[in-house]
Amino acid sequence: MTTQRTLSIIKPDAVKNDKIGAITMRFEAAGLRVIAAKMEKLTLKQAQDFYAVHKDRPFFNDLVAFICSGPVMIQVLEGPNAILLNRSLMGATDPKQAAAGTIRADFAESIDKNAVHGSDSIETAKQEIAFFFTEAQCFSRA
Ligand code: ATP
Ligand code: MG
User: Fold this and answer.
1) What sections of the chain are H helices per DSSP?
2) Angle between helix 20-29 and helix 82-90 axes, rounded to 10 deg
3) How many domains, in total, are found in the chain?
4) Which coenzymes or cofactors are required (predicted)?
5) CATH number, position 96
6) How far is the CA of 93 from the centre of ligand 1 (A)?
7) Which residue has its alpha carbon closest to ligand 1 atom 20?
8) How far apart are CA 107 and CA 112, in angstroms?
9) Model pLDDT for residues 97-128, shown as the tens digit of each residue
10) Domain range spanning residue 8?
């Protein structure tokens, strides 16, 4: 199995609902180690740049406004097949479609307020990690 890194964001809804610990426990229980972390309230510019891939989608403005609406917990996770493993722990984008026992099924209220973000490919993981952290801020234990 390949050791990978992925970017996780615990979104403002889950932070507000005091789910940082419950969500992070799921990562660690599945073998994903937190190797970098910071809590921040994103600026509009940061959010627009981070979600630039969605800039032409009808939900872009709402998405950006929501991610800036409160503090988020940004983490780099490292472990076997981290990118796909995190996506499977997260569950489907719309919590109504998310499999039972996934983070979104248990902690998200709607498709807009869906508790977590996770990188979706090797390429985006690399870009998204570099968006928030330098290599020196990542404490690999692989
Ligand atoms: P994320 O990128 O947050 O991990 P995702 O990869 O499951 O989620 P994307 O398709 O990348 O989903 O969409 C990014 C975010 O935009 C979603 O998390 C969701 O909050 C929002 N979004 C996606 N599709 C819709 C939609 N049809 N209506 C409203 N919001 C949406
Ligand atoms: Mg996505």
Assistant:
1) 12-16, 20-29, 44-50, 60-67, 82-90, 103-107, 122-132
2) 130
3) 1
4) Mg(2+)
5) 3.30.70.141
6) 6
7) 112
8) 13
9) 999 999 999 999 999 999 999 999 999 999 99
10) 3-137
